[in-house]
Automatic annotation (TrEMBL):
This is IclR family transcriptional regulator. It comes from Ramlibacter lithotrophicus. It comes from the Bacteria. Keywords: DNA-binding, Transcription, Transcription regulation. One of its GO terms (molecular function) is DNA-binding transcription factor activity. The lineage of its organism: Bacteria, Pseudomonadati, Pseudomonadota, Betaproteobacteria, Burkholderiales. It holds the Pfam family IclR_C. Gene3D superfamilies: 3.30.450.40, Winged helix-like DNA-binding domain superfamily/Winged helix DNA-binding domain (1.10.10.10).
């Protein structure tokens, strides 16, 4: 198995000192366009289950003044990246527009690994009676870019575009185990700064996950992300590139015991990842 360096983070700040937010600040980099970055933050604030969001909620999620959000949503709507929405009870807001769909569709269409992985993932989903997902990292989340379910399985209600946390999920931990040491250290710093109080418990889980990866080739999350969800995951380097992606297999704990996932599913996931890393290996 891959040799992993010991878990490393920079020294913690003194207790009671709130870590500085990473500001969107053009002055720090003369090439950085603050307005563009803020607009992208607004688009990134939407999650797959959000039917619509108002300016107040967007301001809360983005950490920006409501007046700034109002100007951004106006501009994004004019450009087709947002659309006006109504919940039927007189409450207005915004939803993602067709311009965002066009960008996402173009990106997914160029992701050849999805076409390579899908038949193998579906085969594993049918065998395990679970949900098998392919994901890639975006900041402190893993985003699902492909999902396969067994027709007869009771599975999780997560679809393409869903986000799950890096720190507490099997998929996120597998990514941490496979990315470079420098990337891992930077991510751990950000995870700790985001939740200093919860960091000791999170760090313990990640340390255990890295040890698991060294020994078993997979990472687990048994009730740690959500108490009734069990999953295992493995990461791999996508063919034709250096990016790290991850595949997980999971579902309700009453359907998928830790023993079953490790004994029956783990060998199949290891074989699947090896096939995807080899050029043409999925055929």
């Amino acid at each position: 198995m891959q040799n992993l360096a010991p878990l490393s983070v920079r020294p913690a700040q003194p207790e009671g000192v709130k870590p500085a937010r990473r500001p969107i600040n053009a002055k720090a980099d003369r090439h950085f366009v603050t307005a563009l970055a803020r607009g992208l933050e607004v688009l990134s604030a939407f999650r797959s289950r959000d039917r619509m969001l108002g300016n107040q909620e967007l301001a809360r999620r983005c950490g920006l003044p409501k007046s700034t959000i109002s100007r951004l949503t106006y501009t994004l709507t004019k450009q087709g990246y947002l659309e006006h929405a109504d919940d039927g009870h007189g409450n207005g807001g915004y939803r993602l527009g067709s311009a965002v769909l066009a960008l996402g569709s173009t990106m997914l269409a160029r992701m050849d690994v999805r076409q390579l992985a899908r038949p193998l993932m579906q085969e594993l989903a049918d065998r395990s009676q679970a949900m098998v997902s392919l994901g890639m990292r975006d900041r402190l989340s893993m985003i699902y870019v492909e999902n396969c379910r067994s027709e007869s399985a009771l599975t999780l209600s997560l679809d393409v575009g869903s986000r799950i946390p890096v720190a507490t999920t099997a998929m996120g931990r597998a990514y941490l185990a496979r990315c470079s040491e420098a990337q891992r250290t930077a991510l751990l710093d950000r995870i700790r700064d985001r939740d200093p109080k919860g960091w000791p418990q999170v760090r313990t889980g990640i340390e255990r996950a890295l040890a698991e990866y060294r020994e078993l080739g997979v990472c687990t999350s048994f009730g740690e992300w959500q108490k009734d969800v069990n999953a295992i995951a493995i990461a791999f380097h996508a063919p034709g590139g250096r990016s790290v992606m991850a595949i997980n297999c999971g579902g309700p704990g009453f359907n998928l015991s830790p023993d079953y996932l490790l004994r029956e599913v783990r060998p199949q996931m290891v074989a699947l990842a090896h096939r995807l890393e080899e050029p043409g290996g999925a055929f």
